[in-house]
């Protein structure tokens, strides 16, 4: 299948974003820390106390988004995503967190995640998705699982874009069936617990990297704002890639786009 030039370019850009995410490199260029030093820092073992705090905060943040933010998103119709407004809000919350130190993450993360979720939904809307559709809400939640690399729970997992979608497939389908019949009124429903846990295990990897970056001596209120700017930019790019792929799948079929994507990813890996 040969895609029109505009859609072929959209697929190429989406593949580049989804297969080459690097929070460490982005942080390095934004904060002014050498790439090697930043990669070493975000790859360091998270202290147990901070790891526990990150794990709980990640689950709490996703539950908060699912139960509170999703139901307040309105359908303004297709429009360009207002990424800059959401980025500014995330920068402000990061500055507060940076001022009080990494343990302020427990308070800051639900707020930042809610801001990012609204930005992700805005991007979905711009790609033709209906924000009032429960499937769109769960697809937006799924974005938090992308671009994380391996998780501690499944080191052998396929971490490519379609690999992550496949890994989350059953949890996603079960969650969709539940919200279609019951709505998302309680995060204690087994189907939603499994979905949130599956997303959180991957989202937590990036949150841990953010937390480790914020322990750098150069990070303060200003640095904390920059970290959050990079953090939300990372997931905005994951959302742009994901919902561009979904738009193309609706037009040309999932199997056709998956195969075209696979060829692009393989060619890029050989370069």
Task: Set out the fold topology.
Layout: H1 5-19, H2 23-31, H3 35-43, H4 48-69, H5 83-100, H6 105-126, H7 134-142, H8 161-167, H9 169-182, H10 190-213, H11 221-252, H12 254-270
Helix pairs in contact: 1-11, 1-12, 2-3, 2-11, 3-10, 4-6, 4-10, 5-6, 5-11, 6-7, 6-11, 7-9, 9-10, 11-12
Keyword list:
271 residues, mainly alpha, 73% helix
Describe what you observe in this structure.
The protein is mainly alpha-helical. It has one domain. It is 73% helix and 0% strand. The chain contains twelve helices and no strands. The chain has helices spanning 5-19, 23-31, 35-43, 48-69, 83-100, 105-126, 134-142, 161-167, 169-182, 190-213, 221-252, 254-270. The longest helix is centred in the last third of the chain and has 32 residues, at 221-252. The chain starts with a helix and ends with a helix. Residues 150-157 have low confidence and may be disordered.
Quick synopsis:
The protein has one domain.
The pLDDT mean sits at: 80
Percent strand? under 5%
Query: N-to-C terminal Cα separation, in Å?
Result: 23 Å
Topology order in helix (H) and strand (E) letters? HHHHHHHHHHHH
Domain count: 1
